[in-house]
Amino acid sequence: MRKPNLSSTKHTKVLAPAKDLATLEAELAEKENSLEGNLEDTVLCLSDYLSAVDMVIKQTFNHRVWVKAEIRNLSSKGGHYYFELAEKDDDGKVIASCRGNLWRFKAVRVLAKFERATGMPLDRDLTVLLKVSAGFHAQYGFSLTIEDIDPSYTLGDLARQYAEMVDRLAGEGLLHLNQQLPTPFDIEHVLVIAPEKAAGLGDFQADANRLASTGACHFHYHNATFQGNHAPAEIRQAIISAQQQFQDIYQRLPDLLVIIRGGGAVGDLAYLNDYELAALVAEQPIPVWVGIGHERDKVILDEVAHTSFDTPSKVIAAISAHLAQLVAQTLQYQMQIKQAAQRQLNTAMQQTSRQLSQIQSQTIGQLTALQKDSAYAWRSIQQSANRQVKQAARQASELHTQTQSSVYQQLSLASTYSKSHQKTMMQSAQQQLIQAQRNSEHLRDIVLLHRPSRVLKQGYSILTDEKDKRILTSSNQLYPEQTIHIALKDGKAKAQIIDIKMNKKPTESTEVSTYS
């Protein structure tokens, strides 16, 4: 579908109604007043009343008018088309809605004319100009009978929406955001978003597979639907999931994101004019190349992408050309480096030869002098070593005598300290044993004082749950009609909770009824 031109869109045709609204309201009020007196005390069945409503609508709205509405839903059965029409305010809130019917004997002509003019099929979410007449049925209610559809109005509305989308993207700084990214130096990994089994995808893969077989580039394919109202959401999800999957595997961003369609009806391009999809593409951190498969028409993705191509084949051709240019440039750099290295190698060889001759002549003289110095140094080292060995032997003997004397003294002190410490430890252990025995006897007395049988004899009781397994100690564990067990000093009783009173004080009051 070629991008609509607002300036060339013809003016909308709107037929003037046979009577203005004020006249119709006056006539209805007059009829209502005349009928009100006659029917005030009359009881009608529903079918008669709705038949009267049908008659009033047919007599009052027996002419056809042009109505602007949005298609909220569209279905067909037996060649007939059924519409759900609506009008929305500036906030997108529905302020009017009704059903519409396009009957089979007119549907073929009307829809064919619409598709020829717009290049796209009639579908939901389109704003259309309909030629309608009012109708009412006692069983099915009010509806509009569609006589004709003006395609020029829809073209103008699509062009308006496209222009508003471009202005919004420009105002938010998104229109040229992705285009400001530099072209990657090396294209190694490419994410490809395309409809499954599309003809354009096959053409792209034919060249991409040959390129991938060389190891120069790797392509990662993800599928999405490119037509229908759900196409923008699927493409957005495919872009997000593809990026996340690549990030999880390679721990980095890909070099390029490619969105291609290829083939398909021209009208399907309208589904790609979606603001959310365009904003997501514009905000990508990597360059986005698109090849939607058109030559003259543009979609909003062409406006925000880093680079736009007519077909998927041209996208893969551009990638191949970029890599070929990179290889050629690399080979050129390699040749230049090789030539510079050869020149430097020749110069280094000449300098090395001269330096080698100088080093040889200098080395001979230095070796002679070093031999003399080495002999003198060897004799000096031997004499010094002999003196140091004798001195070390004397020092070792003295150190041995001192060490023996020190060890004997430390052993004597350690023995004395050990005996004293042993005596202290024995006294401390005896005191701790006596204290532990006293503590044990005290704890035994406490345990005996608090044993259950003694507590029960003092007038206390023990509450347990219905299964007599868990002891209940708080009113929070109780609830009305709960069965509990009460243990007394001389037996047990079964009780049922009637009421529970929670007190702020530590003491809580609980009323129970008992039965054995």
UniProtKB/TrEMBL annotation:
EC class name: hydrolase
**Which superkingdom does the taxonomy of this entry point to?**
Bacteria
Ranges where the OB-fold nucleic acid binding domain occurs: 47-150
Keywords of the record, alphabetical order, are: Coiled coil, Cytoplasm, Exonuclease, Hydrolase, Nuclease
Q: Keyword check for Cytoplasm, yes or no.
A: yes
Q: Which CDD domains match?
A: ExoVII_LU_OBF
Q: Give GO terms for biological process.
A: DNA catabolic process
Q: Which residues form a coiled coil?
A: 342-402
Q: Which reaction does it catalyse?
A: Exonucleolytic cleavage in either 5'- to 3'- or 3'- to 5'-direction to yield nucleoside 5'-phosphates
Matching entries from InterPro entries are given as:
Exonuc_VII_L (IPR003753), Exonuc_VII_lsu_C (IPR020579), OB-fold_nuc-bd_dom (IPR025824)
Show where the Exonuclease VII large subunit C-terminal domain sits. 175-496
UniProt xrefs under PANTHER family: EXODEOXYRIBONUCLEASE 7 LARGE SUBUNIT
The family database entries (NCBIfam families) matched by this protein are listed as:
xseA
Name the chain's protein.
Answer: Exodeoxyribonuclease 7 large subunit
